[in-house]
Design brief:
Elements (H helix, E strand, L loop, with lengths): L21 H9 L3 H7 L11 H5 L5 H11 L6 H20 L19 E2 H4 L6 H13 L4 H14 L5 H10 L5 H12 L11 H8 L12 H6 L9 E2 L11 E2 L7 E5 L16 E7 H6 L4 H14 L2 E5 L1 H9 L3 E5 L10 E3 L15 H8 L1
Parallel strand pairs: 3-6, 4-5, 4-7, 5-6, 7-8
Antiparallel strand pairs: 1-2
Helix pairs in contact: 5-16, 8-10, 9-10
The protein binds flavin-adenine dinucleotide (FAD).
The site of flavin-adenine dinucleotide (FAD) has 28 residues, from helix 3, helix 5, helix 8 and helix 10.
Length: 374
């Protein structure tokens, strides 16, 4: 029951892609106002940091963000930002411990699944919920999407359209500038109730409040009791059997011989300062072809990566881990940073910086993790 015909989705204002140098990213961190962040982060126009693409690709890390903010502001005002940074570390600790198990239903099977395929209206940004359509259109065009928008899109896709989370998670990951295998996968699972104890749903009132909009008389304009038992609305019933996610992967083949030491970077380690103490190592970005075919990324994401490849003057190799092993067997000495997606790569492994430690005790939820690390 749509009150008005569908309108063309519009772009939601997103930050300029300030892809400058490391200094520019650090300046952005130093400009964070943690009190404003605390008060406004749930609103689409709130003072969020937009740092996630840099964190995801390892240009900066959560420890640097936390330490620089704590240097400038009293710890009490930083509480909320640190809490959110901890969510990211929590997802990565879960990934380190459970490896590929995070890519399947984690604690429970998803309840009430009607389809594995994405609703066409989601893919085309034509659900009739204007804010949602604008958000989907914006991520497809720019790669940016606010956390609350992600929750709405995932909640409606999984729990209102009754779709299994896997295909939609891969689709969103493709479009995001900050697509992170752990944060994205486990957030979708948290929303779908496979990594949490209940499914997340949002109604029109919730969307209106946090987007400061006033749309009414939509299929989502119902109370929570109605929404919880609602059958898939007509507009979300048509499905797409397979969504095209085209990409063009940059780089050269892995060479057949390399002398000496190679600092082997992954897509998740584009930190300009990494290994600056070892200027003799050849700096290489290795793209594992199979991995990016399994988890493709949109052109704007590859452009972001290329910017840092140019900044860091990296050689880029595309190929298989077997080719790296072949090089290693002929004397190439690899060093790389710990990262769960690369645990099968050869070479000496250096630790990755985290702000919070590993909890001593078991933790089944974020709150149990937070209680121990805060
Ligand atoms: C369905 C869904 C998919 C998501 N996919 C990703 C993803 O692919 N990559 C990704 O980095 N984040 C993901 N998130 C988490 C969160 O939405 C983003 O980290 C956040 O929106 C990034 O914007 P920001 O840098 O302005 O965040 P801010 O609010 O400014 O937070 C600062 C940093 O804290 C971390 N952070 C904040 N909120 C979260 C959160 N809820 N979970 C984990 N870390 C958080 C991020 O590293 C972020 O850059 C997802 C959330 C949902 C609900």
């Amino acid at each position: 029951m749509l009150a008005k015909p569908l309108t063309e989705p519009r772009l939601i204002p997103a930050p300029e892609p300030f892809w400058g140098a490391l200094e520019d990213v650090l300046t952005r961190i130093d400009g964070i106002d943690p009190r404003r962040y605390d008060k406004t982060r749930n609103y689409l126009d709130g003072a969020v940091t937009w740092l996630s693409p840099y964190i995801t690709h390892g240009v900066i890390n959560t420890r640097t963000v936390a330490e620089r903010v704590l240097d400038r502001h009293p710890a009490k005002s930083c509480y909320r930002l640190l809490y959110e940074l901890a969510w990211r570390e929590y997802f990565h600790r879960i990934w380190q411990e459970n490896e590929s198990a995070i890519f399947d239903d984690f604690y429970h099977s998803q309840a009430g699944v009607g389809s594995d395929e994405l609703p066409l209206a989601i893919v085309n940004a034509r659900t009739g919920i204007r804010v949602l359509d604008d958000g989907i259109h914006t991520v497809q065009q720019t790669g940016w999407m606010h956390n609350h928008m992600r929750m709405w899109v995932a909640g409606i896709t999984c729990n209102t359209a009754h779709t299994h989370w896997k295909t939609p998670a891969r689709w969103l990951y493709y479009h995001l500038l900050d697509g992170d295998l752990a944060s994205n996968t486990l957030s979708w699972q948290w929303i779908a109730g496979t990594f949490s104890h209940k499914q997340y749903i949002a109604n029109q009132d919730n969307i209106n409040k946090y987007s400061r909009s006033k749309q009414h008389d939509t299929w989502l304009d119902v109370d929570y009791d109605t929404l919880a038992v609602m059958a898939t609305p007509d507009v979300l019933k048509e499905r797409v059997a397979s969504v095209e996610l085209p990409q063009s992967i940059p780089g050269e083949s892995v060479p057949s011989h390399v002398d000496g030491k190679v600092a082997l970077r992954s897509l998740w380690n584009l930190n300009p300062e990494w290994l600056s103490s070892d200027p003799d190592a050849k700096q290489v970005l290795f793209i594992e072809k199979q991995q990016v075919e399994d988890w493709p990324m949109a052109p704007h994401r590859w452009a972001f990566i290329q910017h840092w490849v140019d900044q860091l003057q990296l050689e880029v190799w595309v190929g298989s881990v077997a080719e790296l092993e072949q090089l290693q067997s002929t004397g190439t000495d690899f060093v790389r940073e710990e990262y769960p997606a690369c645990s099968h790569w050869p070479g000496k492994v250096l630790d990755r910086p985290f702000h919070f430690g590993v909890p001593d005790g078991a933790y089944r939820s974020f709150s149990q993790f937070w209680k121990q690390v805060k």
